[in-house]
Amino acid sequence: MRLFTFQRAASLEQAVSAPPQAAFLAGGTNLVDLMKIEVLNPALVVDLSRLQLRQIEVRDGALQIGALASNTAVAEHPEVRGRAPGLSEALLSGASRSSATPPPWVEISCSGRAAPTTGTWRPGATSASPGPARRVGGLDADARDPRHQRPVHRVHPSDMCVALYALDARVRVRGPDGERELAVSDLHLLPGAHPEREFSLAPGELITAVRVPLATFRPARAT
Amino acid sequence: MLPCLHGVAARPCLLAFCAAPPHFEEAFRAELRGLGAPLLALTPATGTFFGADDEPRAVGPQPELWRLHGAGGAALTVVLLDERHRVRLRREAPEAEGTLLAAVRSAGRAVRSAPRGIGRRELLLNSLAVALGAAVLQACAASRPISVQQESGAAPGLLDVTLVVNGQRRALRVEPRVVLLDALRENLGLTGAKKGCDMGQCGACTVLVDGQRMNSCLKLVAQLDGASVTTIEGLARGDELHPMQQAFIQRDALQCGYCTPGQILSAVALLREGKLGDDDEIRERMSGNLCRCGAYPNILAAIKDVAGSV
Q: Which of residues 135-194 of B touch A (CB under 8 A)?
């Protein structure tokens, strides 16, 4: 790992006003790993772990998960288990099924999970019927199976992200110019001309929370 | 044969060159007698011979021995001689009494617990060599972090971090890129946490940070100022093993043992998390700790033993 300067952010404002080349450090599972193999070599690392972003609560019609909430905390939280059980199950099953993702109860922050930089998009099942490409867990615009010229579905390597796509989750982002919110499906970029760019976040922007809308459907009633 | 060692002919012997006169308590002398190897403790101005059964005997300064063994600047230079007084091991340590006591204790334990019938003298020498090596390493590691009071102002790029490790406050001065695993092993001499994959996948480096299990290979120690860390060294109470350690032994839940410290800490945390469920759930929740020997069935059995007895 190359040497770097370490700064601890005392506030969100201070964090987002860091110079654009700074790397944000939450749990470290992704960033430290990539720094160890010198894929990422930031000169400045801004530590976010002391920020108050661990809250999990129901707010404004959505389940709001602070970006620093650990995966364990999210998976075990009663509101998550009750209102978005699929998210809890995805986190709990992420450990043994996918070698790319560390076990959820080792502390990893929610933002790290929503925006993992290590995984590769893996091809999923090819679509049975031709038609416009579909995103499944954050997918594919143009990719086609080379043999059959049919659209290909690709599944995000993070189990959590697949659940977030299914739940129409949105992420709240704080940047130097203020706050905005975007759909998870707009957060991830497909590998295109710049495969090293995986997110639509601008330099200095920071995910502060993931918002899962409360289910609007009701169980079908027998008529 | 050196004149001062006439009394210990044909026996292994320890030489301790100390910068300052050491204070060996009665407890230390009892350990030494039980071990069966005499100790010659030397300062530049004095020499004291601790024999097997009699009172310590003054033998006067031994400048020839100092010269011969090149002892000088270190607080302690320890030399282990075999029965023909050939040098078997020579080590320097920054601290005298504690290092020797730890070494003699652990060598004594090894000698006492050895089965009858094997060469006692060779065993004694090997035990002493291993124990001295380990104790000196421990002493060197413990003294390595520069004490905060010694220098004014942090050196450029270095960070001062305080951790509570196994209940003890430890001050560290480290580069920001140092991960917890390396700080524990290299700076604090706690080598129980193991470096396996070094990329957060195998779990051999699992420790508890503020009660939560964590892969210490991916955690910058700079982030943990003030945190409380428990390693495998902190589980036992004196000579009494933690129930999980005991269960791993009873169930033979290991083969090579490399993953075991991580397995045990993960299992301890699992019980505290209180989410045990059925066998499958235990396996799932232990899936962050890999065991290439395949001791999983016995690890599961050990965890269930402890869970059932709580």
A: 157, 159, 175-177, 179
